[in-house]
C-alpha cells in the first residue's frame, strides 16, 4: 500500500507529489541508456500500480497510453500511487526495431528476470522487474501488434495457484479487455510465456496482467483509447480513482489457439480480416505463384476468432499467416 515516500534511485515522490526522471541502465559508445520513470504518489492510501509500455518499443498505442495516462494523473484524490514507465526499451525505441534489441539481439519479453551484470537487455529486464514492478502491488504491461502484426485486442493473466491473487488477476483482465481475455496455466492449451514480464512478476507475487491492442507500427487514436479505458477501469476496480468499472458487451474466455501456415510460397491473397469469426473448413485465402496461378487454397482448420495476422504478402512454405483464438462465453462476474 502507498502510505509513504516512493523512491526509485534519485526519483523521489513524497505523499501527494508527482515526480519524473530517468534511471540509467547502461551505456553505448556515444552515451547513456536511460529509462523514463514517472511516479504519481496520491494523497490517499491505496495500492501501488505499475504501468509499463514499450517492452516492445514499436508497439506505439501501448506506450502512448502509458505516456498520456501518466501525464493526466495528478496526486490529488488518487488513492495509492502509480509508477509509469512509458518506454521500457529505449534502444528499440530509438532504432524503431521490432521484437529484438539492436544492441544484443535479445527479445526483452523473453528475458525476465534478467541479470544485473548481463547484456543491456538483461540489465533492463532486471531493473524493471526489481526496481519498478517489484515495488508495486499490481501491474499492467501494455503491448500491441508489432511492426509485422495486425492484432485484435485482448488481455491475459498467468495463473499462479494462489486463489486470492488469481481472482484479482482475472478480474483485472476482465475489466481491461473490450471482449476477449486469456488465463494462462501450465499443462493447458494456453501455457504461460516463460521469461515474459507479466509471468515473472506474477511468480514474485505482483498481480500482473498483459494488455494487448494496436497493430503494425500504427498509432490509431482508437487503439490508444482502448488502452487508456482499460487502465482507468482497472484503477476503478482497485478503488484508486472514483467510480465503477465501465463494462459493456459479453466477455469471451480464450481456451486455445491455432495457426494457419502456408504450405507453398507465393503471393498471399487473404480473404478474412482481424477479429473475424471463422468456421471450420471456411476458405480464408489463396496463394498464387509468380505467373498468377493458384498454388494453394487456404482453409480454416477449426472454429475461431482471428486474433493475429502477419502482414507480409509474399510468403514462403511454412510461414505463419494468421493465428486464431478458440473461445467460450465467460461466466458473468460482479466487478
Descriptors:
single chain; 335 residues; alpha+beta; Aminopeptidase; OB fold (Dihydrolipoamide Acetyltransferase, E2P); 2 domains; 13-stranded mixed sheet; four-stranded antiparallel sheet; 6 helices; 19 strands
List the helices and strands and how they pair.
Elements: E1 6-8, E2 11-13, E3 18-28, E4 31-41, E5 44-53, H1 60-72, E6 79-85, H2 90-95, H3 120-132, E7 138-143, E8 149-151, E9 154-158, H4 163-176, E10 180-184, H5 197-203, E11 207-212, H6 221-237, E12 252-261, E13 266-270, E14 277-278, E15 283-288, E16 294-299, E17 304-310, E18 314-315, E19 320-329
Parallel strand pairs: 5-6, 5-7, 7-11, 9-10, 10-12
Antiparallel strand pairs: 1-2, 3-4, 4-6, 8-17, 9-11, 12-19, 13-15, 13-18, 14-17, 15-16, 17-19
Helix pairs in contact: 1-6, 4-6
In short:
By secondary structure, the protein is of the alpha+beta class.
Shape: globular
Rg, alpha carbons = 21 Å
Uncertain runs? none
CATH superfamily of the largest domain: Zn peptidases
SSE run? EEEEEHEHHEEEHEHEHEEEEEEEE
Whole-number total of structural domains: 2
> Which structural category fits the helices and strands?
alpha+beta
Kindly report how far apart the N and C termini lie: 21 Å
* Quaternary structure state of the chains depicted: single chain
Query: Would you give the CATH topology of the largest domain?
Result: Aminopeptidase
CATH class of the largest domain: Alpha Beta
Strand content: 35-45%
Number of helices: 6
The CATH architecture of the largest domain comes to: 3-Layer(aba) Sandwich
- Average per-residue pLDDT, rounded, comes to 96
Q: Percentage of helical residues?
A: 10-25%
Total number of β-strand segments?
19
The main β sheet shows up as: 13 strands, mixed
Amino acid at each position: 500500500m502507498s502510505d509513504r515516500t516512493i523512491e526509485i534511485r534519485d526519483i523521489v515522490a513524497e505523499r501527494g507529489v508527482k515526480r519524473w526522471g530517468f534511471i540509467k541502465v547502461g551505456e553505448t559508445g556515444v552515451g547513456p541508456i536511460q529509462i523514463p520513470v514517472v511516479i504519481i504518489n496520491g494523497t490517499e492510501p491505496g495500492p501501488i500500480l505499475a504501468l509499463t509500455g514499450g517492452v516492445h518499443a514499436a508497439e506505439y498505442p501501448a506506450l502512448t497510453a502509458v505516456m498520456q495516462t501518466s501525464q493526466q494523473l495528478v496526486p490529488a484524490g488518487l488513492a495509492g500511487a502509480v509508477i509509469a514507465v512509458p518506454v521500457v526499451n529505449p534502444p528499440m525505441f530509438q532504432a524503431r526495431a521490432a521484437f529484438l534489441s539492436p544492441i544484443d539481439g535479445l527479445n526483452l519479453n523473453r528475458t525476465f528476470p534478467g541479470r544485473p551484470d548481463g547484456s543491456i537487455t538483461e540489465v533492463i529486464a532486471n531493473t524493471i522487474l526489481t526496481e519498478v514492478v517489484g515495488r508495486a502491488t499490481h501491474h499492467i504491461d501494455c503491448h500491441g501488434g508489432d511492426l509485422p502484426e495486425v492484432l485484435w485486442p485482448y488481455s491475459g493473466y498467468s495463473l499462479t495457484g494462489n486463489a486470492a491473487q488469481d481472482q484479482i488477476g482475472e478480474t483485472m483482465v476482465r475489466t481491461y479487455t473490450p471482449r476477449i481475455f486469456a488465463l494462462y496455466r501450465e499443462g493447458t492449451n494456453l501455457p504461460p510465456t516463460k521469461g515474459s514480464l507479466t509471468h515473472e512478476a506474477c511468480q514474485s507475487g505482483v498481480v500482473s496482467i498483459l494488455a494487448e491492442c494496436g497493430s503494425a507500427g500504427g498509432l490509431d487514436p482508437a487503439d490508444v483509447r482502448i488502452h487508456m479505458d482499460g487502465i482507468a477501469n482497472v484503477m476503478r476496480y482497485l478503488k484508486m480513482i472514483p467510480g465503477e468499472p465501465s463494462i459493456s458487451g459479453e466477455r469471451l474466455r480464450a481456451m486455445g489457439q491455432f495457426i494457419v501456415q502456408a504450405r507453398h510460397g507465393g503471393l498471399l491473397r487473404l480473404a478474412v480480416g482481424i477479429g473475424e469469426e471463422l468456421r471450420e473448413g471456411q476458405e480464408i485465402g489463396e496463394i498464387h505463384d509468380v505467373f498468377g496461378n493458384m498454388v494453394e487454397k487456404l482453409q480454416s482448420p477449426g472454429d475461431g476468432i482471428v486474433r493475429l495476422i502477419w502482414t507480409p504478402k509474399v510468403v514462403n512454405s511454412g510461414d505463419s499467416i494468421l493465428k486464431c483464438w478458440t473461445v467460450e462465453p465467460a461466466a458473468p462476474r460482479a466487478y
